[in-house]
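Appendix C: a fully annotated inverse folding record. The material below is reproduced so that readers can follow the format used throughout the book. The structure is listed first as tokens, followed by the designed sequence.
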């Protein structure tokens, strides 16, 4: 089959160029045999828009960003952005859900591979510093959204859900750390998460304001806090 352009109007204002494509009962089937419904395409485009919007939202924050401004700083038109997201709230929650879904398992590998408590402690601190320096705008967006939830109840279900997944992520780290140390945690996981979250947020603020010692301080504070959490 020669190359052709297929346009889906109902689900996505989506245009794709494919070498071999057939359409069977509304399902796209490529030469590799992958079958994707228009709904799948719709969800994929929403995620593409979310990824594109993250940079603008992370830089400007929730209050200063509009759908039009997001469109102006992306490859998509304002009409396309508005087609997929009814308002800014819907877009920003989708963005943060997507980002946090990518990061909540980032420590699982070091948890699985570390063979001593000291090794896990060092690798955990290094990973925190890495995400602090490479993904600061995204973390700033998360804290912005969490602060908004104090005033706007429509944010609360998503914030609580995301916060719970982050707590579970930290819980896996500290639980394994205690196991490797042959001791038990002196405090519950929720308290441990709150402590480490506060340490990270303080380091993030320092990093964003140009404190050259923010990364070293974060690593040092984590190395100080975790051993004290053991019973």
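Designed amino acids, in order:
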């Amino acid at each position: 089959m020669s190359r052709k352009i297929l346009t889906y109007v109902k689900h996505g204002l989506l245009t794709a160029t494919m070498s071999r494509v057939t359409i069977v009962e509304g399902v796209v089937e490529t030469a590799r045999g992958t079958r994707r419904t228009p709904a799948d395409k719709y969800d994929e485009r929403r995620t593409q828009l979310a990824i594109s919007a993250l940079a603008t939202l992370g830089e400007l924050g929730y209050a200063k960003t509009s759908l039009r401004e997001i469109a102006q700083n992306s490859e998509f038109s304002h009409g396309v952005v508005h087609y997929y997201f009814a308002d800014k709230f819907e877009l920003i929650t989708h963005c943060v859900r997507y980002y946090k879904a990518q990061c909540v398992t980032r420590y699982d590998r070091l948890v699985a591979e570390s063979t001593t408590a000291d090794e896990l402690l060092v690798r955990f601190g290094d990973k925190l510093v890495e995400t602090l320096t490479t993904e600061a705008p995204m973390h700033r967006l998360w804290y912005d959204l969490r602060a908004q939830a104090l005033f706007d109840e429509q944010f609360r279900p998503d914030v609580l859900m995301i916060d719970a997944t982050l707590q579970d992520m930290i819980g896996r780290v500290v639980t394994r750390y205690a196991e490797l140390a042959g001791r038990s945690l002196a405090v519950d996981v929720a308290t441990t998460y709150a402590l480490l979250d506060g340490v990270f947020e303080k380091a993030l603020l320092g990093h964003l304001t140009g404190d050259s010692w923010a990364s070293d301080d974060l690593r040092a504070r984590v190395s100080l806090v975790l051993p004290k959490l053991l019973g």
